[in-house]
Design brief:
The chain is an all-alpha fold and about 210 residues long. It has one domain: Growth Hormone, Chain: A (Up-down Bundle), CATH 1.20.1250. About 70% of the residues lie in helices and about 0% in strands. The protein has 7 helices and no strands. α4 packs antiparallel against α5, α4 runs antiparallel to α7 and α6 packs antiparallel against α7. It is found in: Cell membrane. Pfam families: MFS_1.
Length: about 210
């Protein structure tokens, strides 16, 4: 059995399960997001949905480059860890605030803030996963993440999203997604004992060439 499912270290397991919950939660959105905006936001159209997604993706795509550069320059992983937790908390709060959205500009502002949260979350998330991946098991552990966290999480979220929206209504879905996102963020706190502390580089030594000695 171990030949087909090798032993995996705690960091990878925590990340895989935490992201499974996170992706399952946000998997609720695809069946309801466009319908929610066009039917429950006054004056919103299908174009509003497109612009809202554009605001999110542009914000995330640009800002995460700066976050990635910042955390790569710091030695150790403590910066990565705090960025990841902060990003998860921001995303949890912002997605919950969609419950109160009542105008198109609310949707755009929330899309920007959600992009900011994910920009802080994603680079350190992948950085920590990459550093702690087991040598010789890289393919399997990335495949496990893709199959379980991304694949199963998206499938489960998509299936449950439509069902829950029918039962509780579109707006009530956003606090539910926020709670699950917060749970995933709390799970990431268990990574703390495995995170390498910040390392201060030793001062450079000055070598004096004593000629003639």
């Amino acid at each position: 059995m171990q030949q087909w499912f090798p032993k995996i270290n705690q960091v990878i397991l925590i990340i895989v399960f935490a992201d499974f919950i996170l992706i399952t939660a946000f998997g609720f959105l695809p069946p309801i997001f466009a319908v929610f905006i066009t039917e429950q936001i006054p004056g919103a159209t299908v174009a509003t949905v497109g612009f809202a997604l554009t605001v999110y993706w542009m914000t995330k795509s640009v800002l995460q480059l700066f976050v990635a550069r910042f955390i790569d320059r710091a030695r150790g992983e403590i910066d990565d860890f705090y960025f990841m937790i902060m990003g998860g908390l921001i995303s949890s709060v912002v997605i919950t605030l969609y419950y109160f959205a009542a105008a198109t500009w609310h949707v755009y502002v929330l899309g920007f803030m959600l992009g900011l949260g994910d920009a802080m979350l994603v680079p350190p998330f992948y950085a920590i996963f990459t550093r702690h991946i087991d040598k010789g098991k890289e393919g399997f552990e990335w495949a496990l993440y893709s199959s379980f966290s991304l694949g199963a999480g998206s499938a489960l979220g998509g299936a449950l999203g439509g069902i829950f929206a029918t039962l509780v209504g579109f707006r009530a879905m956003f606090p539910l997604i926020g709670m699950l996102s917060f749970l995933a963020t709390v799970m990431m706190l268990f990574l703390k004992p495995y995170i390498a502390p910040k390392i201060t580089p030793a001062p450079a030594r000055i070598f004096i060439d004593k000629k003639g000695t």
